[in-house]
Design goal:
heterodimer; A: mainly alpha; MetI-like fold; about 65% helix; elongated; B: mainly alpha; two-stranded antiparallel sheet; 11 helices; 6 strands
């Protein structure tokens, strides 16, 4: 149930020097953002022209990595920096979220997911085949070793049952690949996809949604017509066409196509949100004080729609991760190493033993996906409750 | 605005959307030619659009028949499970949402968690496990994966193809009950029958969550309203109150949910056809991709996009019918 208790009025400090200065003041965050973008561009130019094979040592960046880095810079500028700068508001959010155990748990999980996604594959290594350690069960579980041929149990063998060890906490596949490493690599893929497609979606949807809602008239008509048309053509279909005729079936294509063609829902939400704000007191006050449309949009309309954007993203991102897994299951999307979809294919196959005799291969992937989807959605519910029009930026 | 005028406007929009979809595929065709074409581009475009309107998509080399023949056979099969799936999804999502909103707090949390978990379990897992179970009992279910066994060596192929050659029939050695890892068969799905309800049910499992969430929120909003209080004061039961909630929530449910469903719907349709071996449109998209058959790819994707346009148009008309503002003058 949404909270019904009335909140006490809050007084916020306004930096009048910042608001009232005639000349546009250059802020530290803007400088930092431009410097970061320039550094990224310089690195890209260096990588492209001087050393195409590797950037530093043997580290070679693909175009997906570049897109993720760019998205990361934009995400830090518009997601992290405002939270750090406006500490007052951040503490309020944290306190409000802290009252909901489900939100805290979800946030903790998603934080771990992000850290593991960035650092995990390099720290723990990549899954490799090793026939001396095939089909080890996960830790604290055991498996009947009878049906397996040439089987070597790494843990304890008790009554013909092999017990799992901490060495392979999620067990191994039939060729001895560590399932935990698959899952960590899956997190890496999911994070890159979520970050780059998410940022692209937010950028386009914010521009279109707020412009349509704020200006109204023919701009609204044209933009919403476009959104209507775009939403009738499924992004998956566009992806398949683009992947097999123009680009390749990699993660980059997927992020690009979904980032540029799957934002209609967010734009629509933002439009109705902007419609509500357009005639509110603070927008009219800012306008009559001489603020430009751009200023009003940047300072009043978009910041107040932050909850809508974040909640919409918590709905969209898990679906995106599921779509990537489904596409790689159908072998319509390939990543450098094994993606979770391929692991699912193997986990579900009956070779050499039916799936339920090595349930952990499929089980780990399903549990990872379920926990990720549930965490995103619960966090979205909590954020929606906390930010739902309670703390307006005026 | 009268209903007729509203319908005409949405119809015009659907026509524009269809033209956009066709034009985009023309772009694909025009940029992927192997041979030079002398006629000017505008002429090519006009010919192409007219060809699509006459359902002429050229000849599929990999299947050795005209693409339109393939489409005529496959579109009904896809619709045979998509239409029931939409009905299932709406029923499941709305009833679940109402049950959660009108239940105790604990039941509400449980229902919410269950819905999110069901969203997270990939459809291929639900579908595959169901097919494994069916394989024990029925003659027509065959192994969900597309694998061939050569002695001890098993090799798995992308759905509906083997060595980049379309594969739709049964191999030697049979399939289903007799051999556990036999090559799958599309035979039981050639004609439309009651079995199509099965993929429909599997498809709706992963889709109902979005509707569930919106139905729940709408019902909660309704319960907080004074109308609901008045109904309760007059002695109305929860069921009656829920009916009021549903009627008020019908418009937002229709307008937001369908567009949100679209991309998820398509990807799970691909998965469901692959797992149940239904030779529908998405099956032929996959064949076209593997065999690099451009006419087939263009034909199938145009039809997929046009199906999306048609379904959105139907949704718009339903919206207009339910919206009290449309129809007032």
């Amino acid at each position: 149930m949404p909270s019904t208790g009335a909140d006490a009025p809050r007084f916020t400090t306004v930096d009048w020097a910042d608001e009232a200065s005639g000349l546009p003041r250059v802020q530290v965050r803007t400088v930092g953002f431009v410097v970061a973008l320039l550094a990224l561009a310089a690195l890209f130019a260096y990588d492209y022209s001087v050393s195409p094979n590797s950037l530093v040592w043997s580290w070679d960046l693909t175009r997906m990595d570049w897109l993720s880095l760019l998205a990361g810079v934009v995400g830090v500028r518009y997601g992290v920096v405002p939270l750090v700068v406006d500490r007052d508001r951040t503490t309020r959010y944290v306190a409000a979220l802290g009252r909901q155990p489900a939100a805290v748990l979800s946030f903790a999980y998603l934080f771990a997911f992000a850290v593991l996604g960035i650092l995990g594959p390099e720290t723990f290594g990549y899954a490799t085949a090793d026939f001396t350690r095939e089909l080890q069960p996960p830790v604290y579980t055991s498996v009947n070793a009878d049906p397996f041929v040439n089987y070597a149990c790494i843990g304890d063998m008790v009554n013909e049952r092999c017990h799992g060890t901490w060495k392979y906490p999620l067990g191994t596949t039939r060729v001895g690949e560590d399932v935990a490493k698959f899952v960590v690599y899956g997190m890496h893929i999911a994070l890159k996809l979520a970050l780059s497609a998410g940022i692209l979606m937010v950028l386009v949807a914010t521009a279109v949604g707020t412009a349509a809602g704020y200006f109204g008239g023919w701009i609204d008509d044209v933009l919403m017509w476009y959104v209507d048309i775009q939403q009738t053509i499924p992004a998956v279909v566009v992806y398949i066409i683009v992947a097999y005729t123009f680009l390749d079936d990699g993660l980059f294509t997927l992020a690009l196509v979904f980032g540029l063609f799957d934002w209609g829902g967010i734009a629509r939400l933002l439009r109705s949100e902007t419609l509500k704000r357009r005639s509110s007191g603070y927008v009219r006050a800012a306008r009559s004080a001489g603020a430009s449309h751009l200023h009003v949009l940047r300072k009043h309309v978009v910041p107040n729609a932050a909850d809508t954007i974040v909640t919409a993203l918590t709905r969209q991102i898990p679906v995106l991760i599921l779509i990537q897994v489904a596409l790689s299951y159908l072998q319509l999307n390939t990543v450098n190493l094994r993606s979770l979809g391929e692991v699912l294919t193997r986990g579900l196959s009956t070779n050499p033993v039916p799936w339920f005799q090595r349930w952990w291969v499929m089980g780990s992937v399903v549990v990872f996906l379920v926990v990720t989807v549930v965490a995103f959605n619960l966090l979205g519910d909590a954020i929606g409750d906390v930010l739902d029009g309670q703390t307006e930026v005026r | 605005m009268s209903l007729v005028k509203y319908t005409a406007r949405r119809g015009a929009l659907a026509a524009v959307a269809a033209l956009v979809a066709i034009s985009l595929t023309f772009l694909v065709v025009a940029t992927n030619r192997f041979y030079p074409v002398d006629t000017p581009l505008t002429q090519q475009y006009a010919d192409y659009v007219l060809g699509v309107l006459r359902l002429e998509f050229g000849y599929s080399d990999s299947l050795r028949r005209p693409v339109s023949d393939v489409l005529v056979a496959s579109v009904p099969r896809t619709l045979a499970y998509v239409v029931p799936a939409i009905l299932f999804t709406y029923t499941l999502g709305i009833l679940g949402g109402l049950a959660a909103a009108y239940g105790t707090n604990r039941r509400d949390t449980a229902a919410r968690l269950f819905a999110y978990v069901m969203l997270g379990v990939p459809t291929m897992v639900v579908g595959s496990l169901l097919v494994y179970e069916l394989m024990k009992h029925t003659w027509w279910a065959s192994h969900p994966q597309w694998c061939t066994a050569d002695g001890f060596v098993q090799k798995c192929w992308p759905p509906f193809t083997q060595q980049n050659v379309p594969f739709l029939g049964a191999t030697e050695g049979g399939w289903g009950l007799r051999t556990a890892t036999g090559w799958p068969n599309t035979e039981p799905w050639r004609t439309i029958n009651h079995r199509y309800l099965l993929p429909a049910a599997v498809l709706s499992v992963g889709l109902a969550t979005g509707l569930f969430r919106q139905a729940r929120r709408a019902a909660l909003e309704h319960r907080a309203s004074s109308v609901s209080k008045m109904l309760a004061a007059k002695g109305a039961s929860d069921t009656l109150d829920a009916r009021h909630a549903l009627r008020n929530a019908a418009l937002p449910l229709l307008s937001v949910s369908f567009a949100e469903l679209m991309s998820v719907f398509t990807i799970w349709a691909f998965v469901v056809e692959a797992i149940f071996h239904v030779p529908g449109i998405t099956a032929f998209v996959q064949i076209a991709v593997r065999t690099r058959d451009l006419p087939l790819l263009v034909g199938t994707t145009v039809v997929l996009a046009l199906l999306g346009v048609a379904l959105s148009f139907l949704q718009d008309v339903l919206y207009g019918y339910l919206d009290p503002e449309v129809g007032e003058s």
